[in-house]
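quick one: flavin-adenine dinucleotide bound model?
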Amino acid sequence: GADVLGKWYFHASLAPVCVCDELRQVVDEAGGKTTKHIEFNVKQLPALDWRTADNLEVLPQNPDSEIEWFAQRLGVLDQLDSGLTFVRASSTQKAVKKPFPAPCLVRTALGIYCDLCATPSRAAARRLAALATDPQDRAALEKLLLDRESYQLLSGDKGRLKLRDFFELFLPSAEVDLGAFLQLCPRQKSRAYTIASSSKEDPSKIAICVSLVQEPLMSLKALLGELEGRGHPFPRASSYLKQLDVEADQPRSFRGVCSTMLCTRTTRGEKLWVYSRASSFRLPRRTTTPIIMLGAGTGMAPFRAFVREFKAEKGVRTRTMFFFGCTKRDEDFIYKEELEEALVAQPPALKELVTAFSREQAQKVYVQHRLRERAADVKQAVLDGAYIYDPCRQLVQ
Ligand SMILES: Cc1cc2nc3c(=O)[nH]c(=O)nc-3n(C[C@H](O)[C@H](O)[C@H](O)COP(=O)(O)OP(=O)(O)OC[C@H]3O[C@@H](n4cnc5c(N)ncnc54)[C@H](O)[C@@H]3O)c2cc1C
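yep, here:
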């Protein structure tokens, strides 16, 4: 693997999913409200070295709809289940540098090694622009690429143009085959998830908790209209919008590729590529050191791991305090039962749980409000050498 992303693929392990459960009390998948607890069985993967609250990097799989669209565009729809490999060009003596593990199936190459969902970076778009054979298309794209701010509209929070739309708008004339595409297409990146389980409790199972990332986007018509207003009319825009029909006017919604895979498609028995990486979430050596944990939503992942570790240590840490925030106790209070059990276990695995339910009253209440209310206890713990953990800032003190 010549590039850094490529190296990840060569070091990752294929781990089977053994648990995949919903964590929210109220689920609305269409509205983006779903959070999954996923466990991987890593017993057969000794190379995967991990500790409590480290990070697990997961390689997303593109949706079938995108894989098939690109396979069709590249003329390999009937070869998705055929093998491919990289061979040395006859003009060179150098060994082949594989950008990803091969031989593999065409479906695998398009499914996990190519980033088919994101807007290409400007550098990647510039390489793709060279493929356009229609001079008008190429000129429009090259002009846009020189205007950083306007390109940012395409790729930014409200735009997020998918690679497929990018091809439809700018590269309908491109003559591109699978080999060229695999070299030019940005590589898929792994996503990090804080491990929510304890290696002391069970080193053969790694758990993560994942929330679906879903955001509203501008309609394609509005997006292209805005770019036209900035002096970027696209030759193919009107015919593409016409082809999309009413869809062109609808506000679009963005779904993150990895969280969508994990929250909406992953099932038990499926195998995913993963890699563990050390984090700075480490418990104090001395069991008498006070521990204060601050977390909201899936930001509680490292603390679920800690609480499992406290349980495995048989409750020897007696000064543990967890400030947890979510919107409503009967909607998105993830790991509720487990935390309540940890409080009443004999001896308790968790000494105190302080909750902040932001939307249960007229005035929003967050973890920081509860922290202020408990300032005296927190101050005393700090004087006693407390470790304070905040997932946004990892170990604070
Ligand atoms: C160290 C670390 C630990 C993490 N731990 C967890 C965890 O325990 N559980 C968990 O659910 N996620 C966790 N994340 C976030 C996770 O890595 C992914 O970023 C997230 O799942 C979105 O990936 P995606 O492929 O679905 O979205 P992508 O396709 O990568 O798109 C993400 C885009 O959506 C935007 N976005 C909007 N809201 C969010 C959001 N809430 N999170 C991320 N991006 C957002 C970003 O601007 C980003 O450009 C962690 C991230 C890091 C760096």
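The chain is about 35% helix and 20% strand.
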